[in-house]
Amino acid sequence: MQSAEAKGYNQPMAEDILYPRFAERRLVEALEDSPVVLIQGPRQCGKTTLAQLVCTSQYSPEGNRRSGRRSGIPEDYIYFSFDDEVVRAGAEADPLGFVAELPGRVILDEVQRVPALFAALKLEVDRRRLPGRFLLTGSSNVLQTPALSDSLAGRMETVRLHPLAQCELQGGPDSTRGADWSPGFLDSLFGRGFESGRTERLGSALIERVVSGGYPAALARPAGRRRANWYRNFLDAQLERDIPEIARIRSLDVLPRLMRHAAVQTATLFNLSELAAPFQVSRTTVRDYVTLLERVFLLEKLPPWHSNRLKRLIKTPKLHLGDTGLACTLLGVGAADLTVDRTLLGQMLETFAYQELRRQASWHADPVSFYHFRDRDGAEVDIVLERGARALAGVEIKAGATVKAADFRALRKLKAAAGSRFSNGVVLYDGETSVRFDEGLYAIPLRLLWEMS
Fold first, then answer.
1. Residue 54 has what pLDDT?
2. Per the CATH hierarchy, to which homologous superfamily does domain 4-160 belong?
3. Which of 66, 83, 110, 135 is 20 to 30 A away from residue 245, measured at CA?
4. Which residues pair with 134 in a beta bridge?
5. Cα angle for residues 195, 178, 198 (degrees, 5° grid)
């Protein structure tokens, strides 16, 4: 087997990275602790860029660029991509031999394309257990395949990477923020609450953010038709190549239409019958297709929150698209359309806020679980966040510029059901004022979700 350098797989890393990734610190820590680290997330969300940024001996955690100051990484990683047909064919033909001849430290990109490699990695790790030996990236959730995840149990740490969060976009090349800045919304939500104050209303700028989404390559294009073309091409590649690789699909033409119907349902209760109604396939088939779309991070189901104190709770999950830029493209809507259609704006804004919270939670110090709350009387909290067994918080999303006491009805129910575990409840709205309505209940401008220190 030729060396990686001879085959040309040691790709140079770009000198600059446009946006900070707050998952970077988690990745560095994982490489210091675990022999195998998996960066997992949708295609084109920045996994390879982050891997190549961190995995050079000249990496500096300050400034997100090569600085000549050595980190704890003893040598540059060599890069292999299984999107390369030759590399993939060699790994599939002889997984044990492929792994045995790898250089000291490697990045293996899109590892889900060679499932047989996981058993070979296990054997190699058991022979020589070194922290940070293998850095994998995957664009489908390999943890949902027991045979793959079990083979590296106790040997692999997973870092979840999402498309760009708004707080990462705020820290782009023109930002004046320091390298150590990080968003503080979750800390306040689970901590002592929020201070009163005023800020500027986002208005139309908020809708533009919703329509733009968070994929770096899409954001590099001008807004409008050219950005929408990127999202369409991205989705076509996912549906035509990635999904058929992980499962047999009898009706491939169903998937694009299913995604459009899912976009209509985003931020609503998951209704399999409605999703399946337009198609000449069974409900079971549509349910399986939804599961596949979840595996490649295009869809998410948000489970309901339960409490023994409340018996009349809805136990149906909610459906969310993985990114609002993709959702808007699927529906063919832009900022002007959302401005007119307030119902659709409400759905998109809820998914937008949910995804921002999910992205921030992915690098938060404490694990955070996500749910929704809804009872049979119509009281609903859009997002319930649970930090271990100790703390619980609720977030409601409003597209309007005002908040009334009645908007806290469902949060009060959640607070009563959670008891002493309840930390804070927030109504996020597109207004100007942060104000306390009651103990642990606040109205907060949406922009503070990603701007709060």
1. 92
2. P-loop containing nucleotide triphosphate hydrolases (3.40.50.300)
3. 135
4. 36, 106
5. 25
